[in-house]
Amino acid sequence: MSDCLFCKIGTHDISSKVVYEDSETIAFLDIHPLSAGHTVLVSKTHAPTVTTLPSHALTPLITAVQRVAHIIEAALKPDGFNIGWNHGEAGGQTIGHLHIHIIPRWQGDGGGSIHTIVHNPPAEDLDEIYKKLRSVST
Fold this sequence. Notes:
By secondary structure, the chain is α+β, with helices and mostly antiparallel strands. The chain is built from 3 helices and 5 strands. The radius of gyration is 17 Å and the shape is globular.
């Protein structure tokens, strides 16, 4: 898309600090890092969310996550990572192009696990939720 920030980074119309690139993905340092080495990874195929990204673009994206994590491990020696994405406005997504955050973590850095993002337990019984999910799965 011509007006998409991440598409413009992918085509090098906007400069960034690229740490990894292949024909289908590009990874660059986040301009508002949460930790040293905080990297954003995008597919060069424009898609707002993981559910709209064509399936042929998923494998290269996940393979690139692994490669970038290896690069960060080798260079910065973090104790761990948080890796994930914000999906949709309610999930905190602010740019309409799927992007994966690879956030290096160190013991005692004050951060939390993915379980600290939200605390909104379901009112429904897990069996009811399971039935709903199974009714639309293939």
